[in-house]
Specification:
mainly alpha; two-stranded antiparallel sheet; 2 strands; globular
C-alpha cells in the first residue's frame, strides 16, 4: 500500500462516487416506479452529454443555456421513450420489458454514432482547471504533512451530484407528486384504485431519469472527455445501485460513495492482482454484500405469504 498517496486516492475516490451515485439514481427512479431495471441509462447519459456539447460548440449557445436546453430535450426524450416503447409493453412479462430497455440502449448508442460520430471531443470547461484545491492533512509521512490536491471539477461535480440526489429525495418525500410516485412504487393496482394515474407517474419517472442522466453525463464529460465510451460509465453505477438497495434513494448515494472509495483504495495499492483492478473491485464488494444482505444495505426485505 502506498501510504503517502492513500489519503489522496481515498478522498478522490470518495468525490468520484458522487457522479456514480447520480447515474445510479436514474436507475432507481425507474425501478421505484415500475420495477424495471433500466439498462438504457448509460446511453441516455451519453445522448445528454453529446446534446450539451453540440449546442455549446456547434450551435454556439452559452454553456449554461446549452445545459438547460439539453436537460429539456432529455426530459422530452424520456417521455417519448415511456410513451412509445414502454407503455405498449404494459401487461407483458417483466423479462420482455427489461429486454426492451436493452434494445433501447442499443438504438440510442447507434443514434449517437450516426449523428455525432465516434470522435473523441474535449468538453467545454465548466470549472477552472488551473487552480486545484489543496488540503494539508495532519498526517505525517517522511517528516512532512501529507497534502491532498483536488481538481475543482472533481469537487464541484461531487457537490452537484449529492445536491441532485438530495433534491430528488426531497421531491419524493415532500411533494404531492412525489408521494403519489411512492404510493405507485408500493402497489400499482392499489394506487390506481385510489385514483393515481400510474401512466402519468411512469412518464414523470422517465422524464426525471432523462434529467438525471444528462446532469451526470455533463459532470462525467468534464472529467473524462466525451466519446461513445461515456455510456460504459454506467457499469460502475450498477454495483452502487444494488449495493445501496434498488428502491432506496439514500442507499444509492451511500453505494456510490462506497464504490468510489473502494476504487480509490485499490488505486493506492502498489500491488494490483489483475489489470484494471479498480474497475473490478466494486463488483467484488457487491458480491460480498449480496451474500450477506441480498436486498442491499438499505433495500426493503419483502415477505410474500401464500
Amino acid at each position: 500500500m502506498n501510504w503517502q498517496l492513500l489519503p489522496q486516492f481515498l478522498v478522490s475516490g470518495l468525490l468520484s462516487g458522487g457522479p456514480i451515485a447520480l447515474i445510479g439514481l436514474g436507475i432507481v427512479l425507474i425501478f421505484k416506479a415500475s420495477y424495471i431495471f433500466n439498462f438504457a441509462q448509460g446511453q441516455m447519459l451519453l445522448i445528454g452529454a453529446l446534446l450539451t456539447w453540440w449546442l455549446a460548440v456547434e450551435v454556439g449557445l452559452p454553456l449554461w443555456l446549452a445545459i438547460l436546453m439539453a436537460l429539456l430535450i432529455s426530459a422530452v426524450l424520456g417521455l417519448v421513450i415511456e410513451r412509445l416503447a414502454l407503455r405498449p409493453m404494459t401487461g407483458q412479462p417483466l423479462l420482455a420489458i427489461i429486454l426492451m430497455t436493452l434494445a433501447l440502449g442499443q438504438v440510442l448508442q447507434g443514434l449517437a454514432l450516426l449523428l455525432f460520430g465516434s470522435t473523441q471531443r474535449n468538453f467545454p470547461q465548466i470549472f477552472e482547471a488551473a487552480n486545484p484545491y489543496r488540503i494539508v492533512t495532519p498526517f505525517v509521512y517522511n517528516d512532512r504533512n501529507i497534502t491532498i490536491i483536488l481538481k475543482q471539477n472533481l469537487v464541484w461535480s461531487f457537490v452537484i451530484a449529492v445536491l441532485g440526489v438530495v433534491v430528488i429525495g426531497g421531491f419524493y418525500r415532500f411533494t404531492r407528486t412525489g408521494l403519489a410516485m411512492r404510493g405507485t412504487s408500493e402497489d400499482h393496482e392499489l394506487a390506481q384504485s385510489i385514483g393515481i394515474r400510474i401512466n402519468r407517474i411512469f412518464a414523470i419517472s422517465w422524464a426525471l431519469a432523462g434529467l438525471v442522466a444528462t446532469t451526470a453525463g455533463v459532470l462525467m464529460a468534464t472529467s473524462s472527455g466525451l466519446d461513445l465510451s461515456l455510456s460504459v460509465l454506467v457499469l460502475a453505477a450498477f454495483p452502487a445501485v444494488l449495493l445501496g438497495g434498488l428502491e432506496s434513494i439514500p442507499g444509492v448515494l451511500v453505494g456510490g460513495l462506497l464504490i468510489g472509495m473502494s476504487q480509490g483504495l485499490v488505486s493506492a495499492s502498489k500491488v494490483q492482482l489483475v489489470r484494471n483492478s479498480a474497475e473490478i473491485m466494486p463488483y467484488v464488494i457487491l458480491m460480498l454484500v449480496l451474500l450477506i444482505r441480498p436486498e442491499g444495505l438499505f433495500g426493503q426485505r419483502r415477505i410474500e405469504r401464500i
